[in-house]
């Protein structure tokens, strides 16, 4: 019993020790199982429990190690089938590991997506407690980060891609770093918006021509460098624009050549552009001045000058045309001078010979006059006489002959020496390069050998009457040889007449001698026949007198015929010179009007700014260009008017004139100009002044327009007035005496005045005052010169009174009835061409132009473009052709064409031929053809109308007038 208790106690002690070790976490203690009985069973159960607990502990520790330390999620505790608490413990550990794995992996996925920039994912696993709080915190963070990213992305897209400035990121419910980051992004967007908008405002202003704006926004870094660069660019561009505008204004508006653009501190493109502008101005200055010098020299009669400046393009063609004109005038003038000299010299020498009845006297006169005329230093006049050995030539007069008088008279037989050979052959002999010693030309100081000898026979109807021998130290000019040939023929006629008279006198003397001898021998017969002899003597005397009178009549008839031929030749030369001048002016007018047409039309379209895309300054530029072109056109018209006056082709058409209508025209035309210059302007007329005035109203307006424009030009302050009143008898100019009632049109101003010594010279063309006045006001142009000539055509005159510094008063004196008024409908043709034939439906009601088609035929692309833009602005459909052939083809292919605008001067088929062809086309003969051309001479319009044109407009054409004409011929009214 005692032994049994001892083993039981020992077993219990071992069990207690094992349980204590398990309590203390030591699962290595085992109980011996080799004892029998109940202790052995307890040991087996204990050892199995400890082994089970050790396995569970090991698996749980492994799972905890993998999840907690190694981060290996998804691990499971693997325990052999157990039950009870061990099973629940294993299931709880595995459930905890599964939940933790699912939650951590979901959190990891969301965090990884956020790291990759995917803010669309959220933690959606079931969780509780702190894991739930962590899930909600992370989901909230992702939502706010997504909202922040969307706002930042939106702002970045609007600013960076779409160019929409001013955007702000709006993220609600953020703080800390996210709020700071949002504020920084918004601050960056604000700064960038302000800087870019400021830069855009400045660059937009530059694009519109406003160079006064600058970038004034705060900036740093590269934006600051960009700001500085753009501001510098604007400054340089403003300086460049100001200089280019100044040069353009001086050259284009003020006519001051030689200006240069001076832009400091520029380089690259700006420097090259400035140099190009200066080169343009320099070239234009040189070309215009060279042309002006040559034309001024031609106007003064100096034909030795030519335009030598280099000029390409149209200016080069103008230069070539002017040089060709000058050369033609020079050749014509030289030929005319030579012909005048030839005829004058022949007339003078022949006139000296006329009336001389002595051959020696005639020979002396010829030797005294002819050698100096042809620059000969030796001359000899040989007369044919009958010698002992046959006909011989005897020297009866000489010039510069060095022979000694004691040597006797020179005698040469016909056929002997060059003088005799020339007489025998009846041909002129010329010997050049005479050998030394052949002859001597001597004076008091020395002697020289002649180089040229000429012998001219005097032959009449095959009979040799004499010869002229001349020698000179230099060759005879062709003009001098022509003179000698013609003079020899005239001299032959005179010498023949003198020889015939001498022979007649000789025969008469012999007859008288024979009669005396016969009378002495036959006294009785003489007594019987005395009466008959006396009668015969009287008849002979009368016959001689009649013969002399017949010769005098024939000689005078010859002189009259020669004078008539000379007058006809000079009239032909004058007509030819006038034709050359007219052709030159017509060509000049055409060459200048053609580019002016497109320039004025396009400048007016730009000035009107119909699309509103031009700045005020650009509109001013276009206005200045249009004004300068209009001034040039007025100058061309003035030159043409002056040429008409000089050629006597300016017609005057008198008709009753309303003075009030003339005054209204002057007031409407010049009052805006006076108001712009702050000048007082008045027009007035005395009661019933000019009630019976009959004159050419258009020419009267032209004169008053020139006088008023000149007065306004030279008046800076004060007033300009026009007063019409009857002229007092004492003040009427002498040349208008007896012209009846005279009206005085007085144009007075308070301008700079005119010095007394220049009162007459102001009526010359392009007259300038002293240098200061010329620089300030320019010259008088052609206006005053034309006005005086037109006033004379109207039967009146212009006078001027002036004091320097006080003003001037120009007075047009015009007879109220200088001529008979033309009756209405009398058919008098005016210089502006035949009256247009109005279309049949011109009175129809307004139609829309949108469905109407116009064909433009012109070979100048600039004019085509300008005309097309003008017509399209009125809603018209436009077809274009650059020659008459293509125009006719287009018209045939497009039956919808309602009107044709035709140029005249085109290569190939010109406008005249094209118009005639259209009038012959079936179905198109009725189409209106409006001629728009640069040909502006008096006969051009009538020629175009004769070819079949419906209307005639000269370039540069006014766009409003063009549209009005088109509407008229299309039967369309409207503005």
How is the secondary structure organized here?
Blueprint: H1 2-23, H2 37-69, H3 84-115, H4 129-161, H5 176-207, H6 221-253, H7 268-299, H8 313-353, H9 359-373, E1 378-387, E2 390-399, E3 411-413, H10 417-425, E4 429-432, E5 441-442, E6 447-448, E7 452-460, E8 463-472, H11 478-521, H12 523-528, H13 530-608, H14 616-647, E9 655-656, H15 659-676, E10 680-685, E11 694-695, H16 697-713, E12 719-726, E13 742-749, H17 771-777, H18 783-793, E14 797-803, E15 807-815, E16 853-857, H19 861-873, E17 877-881, H20 884-893, E18 897-902, H21 911-919, E19 929-933, H22 940-946, E20 951-954, H23 959-970
Helix pairs in contact: 1-2, 2-3, 4-5, 5-6, 6-7, 7-8, 8-9, 8-11, 8-13, 9-11, 13-14, 13-19, 14-18, 15-16, 16-18, 20-21
Give structural attributes.
975 residues, single chain, 12% strand, elongated, five-stranded mixed beta sheet, 56% helix, six-stranded antiparallel beta sheet, alpha/beta
Broad structural category: alpha/beta
How far the N terminus sits from the C terminus, by CA atoms, comes to 149 Å
Mean pLDDT across all residues, rounded?
77
The percentage helix is 55-70%
Rg from alpha-carbon coordinates:
60 Å
The portion of residues forming beta strands comes to 5-15%
Strand order of the largest sheet: 3-2-1-8-7-4
Structure report:
It is built from 23 helices and 20 strands. By secondary structure, the protein is of the alpha/beta class. The strands form 5 sheets. It has a 6-stranded antiparallel beta sheet. Strands 10-12-13-15-14 form a 5-stranded mixed beta sheet, with helices on one face. A hairpin with a 2-residue loop joins strand 1 and strand 2 (390-399).
């Amino acid at each position: 019993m005692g032994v049994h208790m001892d083993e039981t106690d020992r077993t219990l002690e071992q069990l207690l020790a094992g349980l204590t070790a398990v309590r203390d976490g030591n699962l290595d203690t085992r109980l011996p199982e080799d004892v029998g009985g109940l202790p052995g069973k307890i040991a087996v159960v204990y050892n199995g429990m400890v082994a089970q607990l050790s396995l569970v502990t090991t698996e749980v520790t492994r799972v905890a190690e993998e999840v907690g330390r190694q981060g290996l999620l998804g691990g499971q505790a693997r325990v052999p089938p157990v039950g009870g608490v061990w099973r629940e413990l294993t299931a709880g550990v595995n459930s905890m590991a599964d939940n933790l794995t699912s939650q951590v992996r979901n959190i990891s996925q969301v965090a990884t997506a956020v790291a990759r920039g995917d803010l669309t994912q959220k933690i959606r696993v079931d969780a509780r407690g702190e894991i739930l709080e962590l899930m909600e915190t992370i989901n909230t963070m992702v939502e706010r980060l997504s909202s922040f990213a969307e706002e930042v992305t939106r702002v970045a897209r609007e600013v960076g891609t779409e160019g929409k400035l001013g955007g702000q990121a709006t993220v609600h419910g953020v703080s800390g770093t996210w709020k700071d980051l949002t504020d920084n992004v918004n601050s960056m967007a604000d700064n960038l918006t302000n800087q870019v908008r400021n830069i855009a405002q400045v660059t937009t202003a530059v694009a519109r021509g406003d160079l006064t704006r600058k970038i004034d926004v705060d900036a740093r870094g590269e934006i600051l460098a960009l700001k500085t660069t753009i501001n510098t660019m604007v400054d340089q561009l403003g300086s460049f624009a100001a200089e280019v505008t100044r040069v353009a204004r001086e050259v284009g508006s003020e006519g001051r050549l030689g200006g240069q653009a001076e832009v400091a501190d520029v380089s690259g493109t700006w420097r090259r552009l400035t140099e190009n502008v200066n080169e343009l101005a320099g070239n234009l200055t040189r070309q215009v001045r060279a042309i002006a010098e040559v034309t001024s020299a031609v106007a003064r009669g100096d034909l030795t000058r030519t335009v030598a400046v280099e000029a390409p393009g149209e200016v080069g063609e103008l230069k070539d045309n002017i040089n060709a004109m000058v050369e033609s005038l020079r050749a014509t003038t030289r030929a005319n001078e030579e012909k005048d000299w030839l005829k004058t010299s022949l007339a003078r020498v022949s006139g000296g010979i006329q009336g001389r009845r002595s051959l020696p006297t005639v020979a002396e006169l010829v030797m005294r006059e002819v050698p100096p005329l042809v620059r000969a230093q030796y001359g000899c006049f040989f007369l044919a006489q009958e010698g002992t050995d046959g006909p011989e030539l005897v020297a009866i007069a000489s010039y510069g002959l060095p022979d000694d008088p004691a040597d006797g008279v020179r005698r040469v037989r016909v056929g002997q020496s060059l003088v005799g050979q020339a007489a025998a052959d009846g041909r002129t002999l010329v010997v050049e390069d005479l050998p030394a010693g052949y002859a001597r030309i001597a004076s008091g100081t020395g002697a020289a050998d002649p180089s040229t000898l000429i012998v001219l026979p005097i032959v009449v109807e095959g009979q040799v009457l004499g010869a002229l021998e001349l020698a000179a130290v230099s060759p005879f000019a062709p003009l001098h040889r022509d003179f000698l040939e013609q003079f020899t023929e005239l001299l032959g006629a005179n010498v023949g007449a003198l020889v015939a008279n001498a022979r007649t006198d000789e025969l008469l003397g012999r007859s008288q001698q024979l009669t005396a001898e016969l009378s002495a021998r036959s006294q009785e017969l003489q007594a019987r026949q005395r009466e008959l002899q006396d009668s015969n003597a009287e008849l002979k005397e009368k016959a001689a007198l009649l013969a002399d009178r017949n010769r005098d009549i024939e000689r005078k008839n010859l002189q009259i015929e020669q004078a008539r031929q000379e007058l006809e030749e000079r009239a032909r030369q004058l007509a030819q010179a006038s034709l050359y001048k007219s052709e030159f002016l017509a060509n000049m007018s055409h060459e200048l009007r053609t580019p002016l047409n497109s320039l004025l039309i396009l400048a007016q379209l730009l000035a009107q700014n119909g699309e509103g895309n031009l700045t005020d300054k650009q509109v001013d530029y276009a206005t200045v260009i249009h004004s300068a072109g209009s001034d040039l056109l007025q100058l061309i018209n003035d030159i043409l008017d002056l040429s008409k006056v000089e050629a006597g082709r300016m017609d005057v058409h008198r008709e009753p004139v309303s003075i009030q209508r003339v005054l209204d025209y002057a007031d409407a035309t010049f009052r805006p100009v006076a108001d712009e210059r702050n000048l007082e302007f008045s027009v007035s007329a005395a009661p019933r002044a000019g009630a019976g005035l009959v004159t050419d109203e258009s020419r009267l307006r032209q004169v008053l327009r020139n006088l008023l424009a000149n007065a306004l030009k030279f008046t800076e302050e004060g007033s300009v007035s026009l007063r019409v009143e009857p002229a007092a008898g004492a003040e009427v100019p002498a040349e208008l005496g007896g012209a009846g009632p005279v009206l005085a049109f007085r144009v007075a101003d308070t301008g700079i005045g005119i010095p007394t010594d220049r009162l007459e010279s102001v009526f010359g063309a392009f007259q300038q005052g002293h240098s200061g006045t010329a620089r300030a006001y320019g010259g008088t142009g052609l206006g005053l010169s034309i006005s005086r000539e037109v006033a004379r055509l109207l039967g009146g005159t212009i006078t001027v009174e002036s004091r320097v510094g006080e003003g001037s008063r120009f007075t047009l004196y015009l007879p109220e009835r200088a001529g008979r008024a033309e009756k209405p409908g009398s058919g008098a043709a005016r210089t502006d061409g035949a009256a247009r034939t109005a279309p049949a439906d011109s009175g129809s009601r307004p139609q829309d132009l949108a469905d109407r088609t116009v064909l433009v035929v012109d070979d100048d692309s600039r004019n085509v473009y300008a005309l097309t833009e003008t017509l399209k602005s009125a809603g018209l459909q436009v077809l274009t052709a650059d020659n008459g052939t293509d125009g006719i083809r287009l018209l045939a292919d497009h039956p919808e064409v309602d009107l044709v605008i035709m140029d005249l001067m085109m290569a190939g088929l010109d406008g005249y031929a094209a118009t005639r062809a259209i009038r012959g086309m079936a179905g198109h003969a009725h189409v209106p053809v409006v001629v728009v051309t640069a040909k502006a001479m008096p006969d051009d319009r009538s020629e175009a109308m004769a070819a079949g044109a419906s209307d005639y407009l000269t370039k540069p054409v006014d766009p409003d007038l063009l549209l009005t004409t088109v509407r008229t011929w299309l039967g369309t009214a409207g503005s």
